[in-house]
Design brief:
alpha+beta; globular; six-stranded antiparallel β-sheet; about 725 residues; four-stranded antiparallel β-sheet
Length: about 725
């Protein structure tokens, strides 16, 4: 009997006998790509190192007219923060502001002016010209201390002024400067993250090129290979998702000796800390209250709030707070003298309450967002795989991954991970439960234990009501998924069908009973979730419904083009104008999904594509699913605008619905064209362009500087990311 070692050796030899040629080709290709990425990092991304190698450096440190410290550094102060030099009469290619490394980290804005052969006086921006832009210099990021200048001939006079901190903040003086140099030599810097990122892009391009072998692996005919490829892709997505969340470390609420060490307790291996202030601890406080047998928060509202005739009028609240000096909790439900949490209760029961009962500490919200984001990725992948394997026969691994990637990356979950707060958690939970519910339903259609799968699916779908009620519209997919089986084929009239139908309905009844009981215990109403009692920026009790809000919301959510700049990360908040003569609740948004996600442009051909499907199959299941998804997406987007407003995180409520519909349409096109080589190759190229543009937009959105994110809390560190991308500066 052969040993385990012999079996492994035999398997390896057999594998190499079959795939030796393919592995050799892939290895050579990967080696070439590694070499290209290495050459780009060394010779292109370090172009400033080579460009400055021949410079003659001029040391202006001795000409600084600043107060000098005992350690030899110079102090820039609130009174003396200008450095001016005259009679230089030299070419100036760059300036190095050598800030001392031992001082507190901060990002400062520096205004640079000069006179040269084209300007006898200092110049600024005018109506028709743009002057030298402000230079953002971090005291901790070495590359940012170098500022390249484009001058005309010799520079005569030079003026350098610290005009403020990042985004107009105050500078924390004194700023310590070790020296100032002209035409400084740039150091060579091998950026490992940039190298890995470029190599990843090159590998993706190689893997998804039209002639790639992944387009010859049909997932139905080659289940092992296809599953291995899908698992590998999902593993990479999960790792990237996790890295991105921990990159914005200020939101995580976890500290160790080397990570968020400013909030480390000095003793524990890992400890948690509160992020976002009192308003961000609602779920944690509700868990504490539940552990003590209460449904309202422990904090007592101020007497002035209890005495107000209309506590939901923000202007009146602000005046009363200003007069008394007593604060109140913002964005919580206030009812009958108590604070309540109007957000869905399921995340509390899922994460916060068990964690509190086990540890006595607050559950870190960002970890919950990450867990549910990973659950969404896994569920969406499994659901798409289920449809590809059991409703389509010609889907290849390449086409599947080409559609799975935008389904995950463009669904809005990256923005929720960017801001992993208690606002994001219920949305993320609702999305994760939805995709897993749909997967269980789809799995139950052909499973032996059909009742178990149907019950699990309905339980997931019903729990959405306790997370993000808007997403309950996805339960309408039950009609196209089950209509033919239970209505057309009359399975509902059989004993087995009746049991299965009961398994479909029972979880909804159970969850509804629990949620209605929860609502009644708080507000005396079975259907009152408490959103109208929210102490927010507008009076929700009088907000009502107004058709005038729909047009600007539809344009913003669907049709608004992206607002671009020429500087990384290239996106900025889109402008918002409206003729609606009332209050509009609006935060920064970055364009409508139909304008910014080209992969959705396939929806414009829905009717023609669905006719292809009708010719292929007598079943109308896919057609019904697509119709319900599109209708649901529009309903949810407009309902969000009516009930709450126009916010970027709300895109996650409906983006998945449109993306899922687009993916199914692409499967139909693939099925129709898979036997026509020329048309199939054209389809692949079109898919590649649309997917690449959509994913690029979504990834860039991850790095747009916003209030409350990494770029706002640690602007000096965010400058390191900018320097990595803007390597030529």
């Amino acid at each position: 009997m052969p040993t385990v070692r012999e079996n492994i050796a035999y398997t390896f030899e057999h594998f190499m006998l079959i795939y030796r040629g393919s592995l050799a080709r892939v290895t050579r290709a990967v080696a070439v790509l590694v070499a290209i990425a290495l050459m780009l990092e060394v010779f292109v991304f370090n172009m400033n190192y080579f460009a400055t190698a021949g410079y003659h450096t001029i040391d202006l440190t001795d000409r600084l007219k600043l107060a000098q410290n005992e350690d030899g550094s110079y102090s820039l102060t609130a009174v003396d923060h200008v450095m001016e030099f005259s009679n230089l009469n030299t070419e100036v290619h760059n300036i190095k502001l050598d800030f001392a490394s031992g001082q507190p980290a901060q990002l400062v804005s520096v205004k640079i002016q000069f006179t040269d052969d084209a300007h006898q006086t200092y110049f600024d921006s005018t109506e028709y010209t743009v002057g030298v832009p402000l230079a953002e210099v971090s005291t901790k990021v070495e590359q940012s201390k170098y500022v390249n200048l484009q001058t005309a001939g010799r520079v005569e006079n030079l003026r350098i002024e610290v005009v403020g901190g990042a985004d107009g903040d105050e500078v924390s003086y004194p700023l310590l400067l070790d020296g100032l140099y002209l035409n400084a030599h740039r150091p060579f810097s091998f950026n490992g993250w940039r190298f890995v990122g470029v190599l990843g892009v090159l590998l993706l391009g190689y893997a998804f090129r039209p002639s790639s072998a992944i387009y010859r692996i049909r997932i139905v005919e080659n289940p092992r290979k296809s599953k291995a490829g899908i698992i590998a892709a999902v593993a990479v997505e999960v790792v990237l998702l996790s890295l991105f969340l921990f990159y914005g470390s200020n939101q995580v609420g976890v500290a160790t000796a080397t990570y968020n060490y400013g909030s480390w307790d000095g003793a524990s291996v890992v400890n948690t800390f509160e992020v976002g202030g009192d308003n961000a601890q609602q779920y944690a406080e509700l868990a504490r209250a539940m552990a003590e047998g209460r449904l309202y928060l422990d904090e007592e509202p101020p007497e002035w709030l209890k005495a107000m005739d209309d506590p939901y009028d923000k202007g009146a609240r602000d005046e009363a707070q200003k007069a008394t000096g007593e604060p109140y909790l913002f964005d919580v439900a206030y009812f009958d003298g108590h604070y309540y949490v109007y957000f869905g209760v399921v995340p509390v029961l899922l994460f916060y309450l068990p964690f509190y009962l086990a540890t006595g500490a607050n559950f870190p919200t960002a970890i919950g967002v990450l867990v549910m984001a990973i659950a969404f990725v896994l569920g969406a992948t499994a659901l798409l795989d289920r449809f590809a394997r059991y409703h389509f026969r010609s889907v290849t691994l390449g086409v599947y991954l080409l559609l799975q990637i935008p389904l995950v990356a463009c669904s809005g979950i990256l923005y929720l991970v960017k801001f992993p707060t208690f606002y994001s958690l219920p949305i993320m939970c609702g999305l994760a439960f939805s995709v897993w519910g749909l997967y269980c339903w789809s799995r139950g259609a052909a499973a032996r234990r059909r009742c178990l799968w149907l019950f699990a699916g309905s339980l997931c779908m019903a729990l959405v009501a306790g997370c993000r009620p808007q997403l309950l519209v996805l339960s309408l997919l039950a009609f196209p998924l089950f209509w033919r089986t239970y209505i057309t084929e009359r399975r509902l009239l059989t004993p087995a069908g009746a049991r299965e139908f009961a398994c479909l309905v029972a979880p909804y009844a159970m969850v509804a009973a629990g949620i209605m009981g929860y609502n009644y215990a708080r507000f005396g109403s079975l259907t009152d979730f408490g959103a109208n009692y929210n102490l927010t920026v507008n009076d929700m009790t009088k907000r009502g419904m107004n058709l005038g809000r729909l047009a600007p919301a539809f344009f913003t959510y669907f049709l608004q083009p992206p607002c671009m700049t020429g500087v990384f990360p290239f996106l900025q908040a889109a402008p918002f104008d409206t003729t609606y003569m009332g209050q509009t609740i609006k935060e920064a948004t970055f364009g409508g999904i139909l304008a910014c996600l080209p992969v959705l442009w396939v929806l414009a051909f829905s009717r023609r594509i669905l006719k292809m499907r009708a010719r292929q199959r007598s079943s109308r299941t896919i057609m019904g699913v697509i119709v319900v998804l599109l209708a649901s997406g529009v309903i949810v987007a407009l309902a969000d605008a009516e009930l709450a407003g126009i916010l970027q995180r709300y895109y996650a409520d409906f983006s998945f619905m449109f993306l899922a519909a687009a993916m199914l349409l692409c499967f139909v096109v693939n099925e129709q064209l898979s036997h026509t080589r020329g048309a199939y190759d054209l389809m692949l190229r079109v898919f590649l362009v649309l997917v690449a543009a959509s994913v690029t937009y979504s990834l860039l959105l991850c790095f747009v500087p916003e209030t409350g994110w990494y770029s706002d809390v640690y602007p000096w560190a965010y400058q390191d990311l900018l320097q990595t991308a803007l390597f030529w500066k």
